[in-house]
Design a protein that fits this description.
By secondary structure, the chain is an alpha+beta fold. The chain has three domains: 107 residues, no CATH class; 113 residues, Jelly Rolls (Sandwich); 93 residues, Sandwich (Jelly Rolls). Helix content is 32%, strand content 30%. It is built from nine helices and 18 strands. The strands form five sheets. A five-stranded antiparallel beta sheet has the order 1-2-7-4-5. A four-stranded antiparallel beta sheet has the order 6-3-9-10, with no helix packed on it. A four-stranded antiparallel beta sheet has the order 12-17-14-15. A hairpin with a 3-residue loop joins strand 9 and strand 10. Helix 1 crosses helix 7. The mean pLDDT is 87.
């Protein structure tokens, strides 16, 4: 497609999503965001100033427009959430997934580009002078797949620990500052257990079992029935256009947004699906003993519409109900005695309607 055709494609789909959306249920902040997008599109597309006719004169690509707009929205939502975390830092408690979704739903949605609904997620913000000690001994009996990634507040990854390393206890040495600990905990029962954390040998955040299964289930139902939203479509247009039409042009930054590459225990397979298609997955027998295997479908609004764990060597998904993409997530079960090339142990087929 040339630039003009891309704009026509984008606008036709945007208007379709807008017509199917119930704009009356938007909260005030979402209405402001939607109004901003409408104003930007009006300025970009229908300005009487020919120099602003982005469809044919300036060369601006709608995928770039979508990508840049998403970076702006993400930075705003993240800044708001950071301030909220900092206001609660003295609480020294983990904030589980369902609570994040309640207090900052739009931040949670954008953070869940990777949709961790197979895992339980929790965040902890701590101020550290020298060392963070993480003790997994109280929780390792409840799962064989869990990881903590430690981020400096500038987004720099400074360390990780978990079942993949095999340690029951690990110390991560850092320079003075604020650090965010992000836990992913996999459990067949969707339970959430938090490890013990000690900061600088003095401040202790004790291990505990978060009895939140019902809240997590409700949160999952909420996001899987979120409905049409023109804001979500615009902010994710670039990802799904590139997946469908120009995979080779997808920048690394976008694939990094789309997949949780920072998580050291996870391998991925993904691709575009059209309505009515499904995924068939063939696995070597030993794969299921080494990995937990999860299948997720997301629509073009980047919202989850299908979640399932593959538990047999021949797995066939349901058909996708609308255009979107699939994620296949391979999560290692504990420490591996030797590295294996997972790509050689499975085959993925995308099948059309019968």
């Amino acid at each position: 497609m040339n630039t003009k055709q891309k704009w026509e494609y984008f606008l036709e789909r945007y208007e379709r999503v807008k017509a199917m959306s119930d704009l009356s249920v938007m909260d005030d902040r979402s209405r402001e965001d939607f109004s901003l997008i409408e104003k930007m599109l009006s300025r970009t597309i229908v300005s009487t100033n020919k120099k602003c006719d982005m469809t044919s004169k300036s060369g601006l690509d709608p995928t770039n427009f979508s990508y840049l707009l998403k970076q702006y929205f993400w930075s705003v939502k993240e800044s708001e959430f950071r301030k909220l975390l900092e206001s609660r830092v003295n609480d020294a408690v983990w904030i589980p997934d369902y609570e994040i979704s309640q207090i900052q739903p739009e931040y949670y949605k954008m953070m869940q580009e990777r949709w961790q609904l197979h895992a339980r997620l929790s965040l902890l913000l701590v101020k550290v002078n020298r060392v963070i000690k993480i003790d997994f001994a109280p929780i390792c009996r409840y799962s064989d797949s869990y990881t903590i990634v430690v981020y400096k507040m500038s987004h720099e990854v400074v360390g990780s620990a978990g079942s993949l390393g095999g340690e029951l206890e690990k110390e991560i040495f850092v320079t003075p500052g604020w650090y965010l600990l992000s836990l992913r905990f996999y459990s067949d029962q969707k339970e959430l257990f938090l490890p013990r954390v000690v900061v600088d040998g003095t401040t202790e955040i004790d291990s505990y079992h978060d009895h939140s299964h019902a809240q997590f289930t409700e949160m999952t139902k909420f996001w899987m029935n979120r409905g049409m939203n023109p804001i979500y479509f615009v902010l994710n247009f670039h990802t799904f256009f590139w997946l469908k039409y120009e995979t080779e042009k997808m920048p690394e930054e976008v694939s990094n947004d789309f997949l949780p590459v920072a998580n050291p225990d996870t391998e991925w397979e993904y691709g575009y699906l059209e309505e009515g298609q499904r995924v068939r997955l063939q696995l070597d027998e030993e794969v299921l003993g080494i990995f937990r295997v999860y299948v997720t479908f997301v629509n073009e609004l980047s919202l989850p519409i299908y979640l399932e764990q593959a538990t047999c060597v021949e797995y066939v998904s349901a058909k996708i109900r609308e255009d979107g993409a699939f994620h296949i997530r391979f999560v290692r079960r504990g420490q591996l005695e030797e590295e294996i090339d997972i790509k050689q142990r499975y085959t993925v087929y995308v099948e059309g309607e019968d």
